[in-house]
Write a structure and sequence with these properties.
alpha+beta, 3-stranded antiparallel β-sheet, elongated
């Protein structure tokens, strides 16, 4: 008889490399929002932004805000100073955190 992995096991497998994972991807893999909420309450997982999860033991990265924005807006574009800073091509820091744009061009921040 084969052992069926639990939702916790599935969540840990998706989060194991320390990357940010969207709730949508977790639910597609069969992990319920309730399971993720329990893992957050127990301190095993953190929720750095709405709809994003990461293992609590994952090392913080200075590029996290761009990673979060990219996970939340998969077809988004990092541009200008943010892109230069991401690739270590400037010492200038972006004036504000990344923001999302709606398809019609209106800002959602």
């Amino acid at each position: 008889m084969s052992h069926k992995p639990t939702q916790r096991d599935q969540a840990r497998a998706l989060l194991q490399d320390g990357s940010l994972v969207r709730l949508r991807d977790l639910t597609t893999a069969g992990v319920s929002p309730e399971t993720m909420a329990r893992l957050v309450r127990e301190g095993e997982v953190v929720r750095p932004a709405r709809g994003l999860y990461q293992l609590a033991e994952a090392m913080p990265d200075g590029r996290r805000s761009i990673a979060e924005a990219s996970a939340l807006v998969p077809k988004g574009v990092v541009c200008l100073t943010s892109a230069l800073q991401f690739h270590d091509l400037t010492l200038q820091m972006p004036a504000r955190s990344p923001r999302r744009r709606r398809p019609n061009g209106a800002s959602s921040s």
